[in-house]
Amino acid sequence: MEQLIEKIKNDGSVLSSSILKVDSFLNHQIDPDLMNEIGSEFARRFSGSGITKIVTIESSGIAPAVMAGLHLQVPVVFARKRKSLTLVNDLITASVYSFTKQESNEISVSSKFLSENDKVLIIDDFLANGQAALGLAEIVNKARASIAGFGIVIEKGFQDGGRLLREEGYRVESLAVIHSLKNGIVEFEITEEGKAELTR
Amino acid sequence: MEQLIEKIKNDGSVLSSSILKVDSFLNHQIDPDLMNEIGSEFARRFSGSGITKIVTIESSGIAPAVMAGLHLQVPVVFARKRKSLTLVNDLITASVYSFTKQESNEISVSSKFLSENDKVLIIDDFLANGQAALGLAEIVNKARASIAGFGIVIEKGFQDGGRLLREEGYRVESLAVIHSLKNGIVEFEITEEGKAELTR
Prior knowledge:
globular, Rossmann fold, 12 strands
């Protein structure tokens, strides 16, 4: 998605060979116009897939997910992260390991918002090692709903998440795929419309 | 806001004389169309106020704030909640006491996203005792930005937050004000256009 790639080039900052900071428009400060375009693009890519619900995870997934929900005209549910395992009725849960924090967190969705009749689009801001995405998939599967695919704003193509999801047979639509962050330079994989080249 | 009041009447559930559950459209599952209408209404009420930025708090404030940002054409910043006081550079912080959890949490915004030239609209899903709202105001004030007002989706009129904010001279625009939740019935204050009556 050209508009997103330009935004990353102009406003993203490379903190290390694995960390891209996009807190000026995606995960701390949010650019509502860009979120609207992102939501529209997810809706375009998944139109005709019979999506009935979007599932995302707090907090940074919410803005792109709500815009996609507006364009697809379906409700959005965001999974909550909880540190403690307090017993609450009717919650579907999954455990998500964070490599950064080296700890597991429980994520949960109320069972009343997912049913076996739902066809779910899972949206998140980043796809890196895929642990959060797999946790969301686990929750949707536990609810016996089906997964139409994953809508990812930024995929770190040099980490394992995208491969893991695609190997499990999931459709993954990433609006920007980063090939490398080496030497402080963002190198993108351009995969739209069958092309597979690199740009900086 | 009539559409919101109807939604609360139809889909909200009263858990006690102080707790209204709206997790089917506002703070767990989200209704994107309603959020869009809410954003449009905040934009209408604060049009001409010279708003340059919206500040909210994760997670439930994000959806209405981003829609308001889309309609007002300004960026949105969401404050993060953190349990620990790890030292991070360039963060503006405030301490927010939760009466429910009986603990204080630190909320923070990166200083680079607020400046003395900003005129800020603070948006949140609920206004109850006002602690989160006052914490957000503290952060905006610390950044020497000015506060144009508060946009609240649901105000619990029977708790102190609204009074506290208005006594400090802040403009508070609440789209639905709840007068009482007694006996399992939601009673609203109708305050739009100068009227002050009650409806159930």
